[in-house]
């Protein structure tokens, strides 16, 4: 159920990736390039950004501001988090789930039946409760009471 798309906003580029990791590796490989391949680019051309750095390391770490990389992965599922404390908090939900399987929580029983049984000893109270208080039945209201048939426009 992952429909999120990460779009590259580099100048003249609009490539889309399903994960921030893929977008990030695209940026470093295709846009930053390498000295050895002769295409090293040390100025960020991301939309509304004009950062220029001196070293490749600097631009690769700078690109993280544009890509929502989440380096902290949950040990139990596919989720990942930006901050380690968020991941710890999330991982706790897994460990707590395991504990709850052994002792499933039952909701407190509060039914109408219990209520009736508790008042059963008091007879007068019971008859009073069981006596239906019928509301007077009002005659069905005719929509034609005014003599004008209602037309339904469809
Ligand atoms: Zn791109
Ligand atoms: Zn930038
Ligand atoms: Zn998880």
Automatic annotation (TrEMBL):
PANTHER family named among the record's database cross-references: PH-RESPONSE TRANSCRIPTION FACTOR PACC/RIM101, PH-RESPONSE TRANSCRIPTION FACTOR PACC_RIM101
The answer to whether keyword Zinc applies is yes
Does the UniProt entry include the keyword Metal-binding? yes
The cross-references to PROSITE patterns, in alphabetical order and at most eight, read: ZINC_FINGER_C2H2_1, ZINC_FINGER_C2H2_2
Instruction: Report the superkingdom from the record.
Output: Eukaryota
A GO-annotated cellular component: nucleus
Q: List the biased-composition ranges (Polar residues).
A: 114-128
Basic and acidic residues compositional bias, start-end: 83-102
Name this polypeptide is given = C2H2-type domain-containing protein
Where it sits in the cell: the answer is: Nucleus
Please give the family membership noted in the entry.
Belongs to the pacC/RIM101 family.
Mainly localized where? nucleus
Q: Tell me one GO biological process term.
A: positive regulation of transcription by RNA polymerase II
Which keywords describe this protein according to UniProt? Metal-binding, Nucleus, Repeat, Repressor, Zinc, Zinc-finger
Annotated organism of origin: Hesseltinella vesiculosa
UniProt region (Disordered), positions on chain: 83-154
Domain (C2H2-type): give its ranges: 6-36, 42-71, 72-99
Kindly give the InterPro entries that the UniProt entry links to this protein.
pacC/RIM101, Znf_C2H2_sf, Znf_C2H2_type
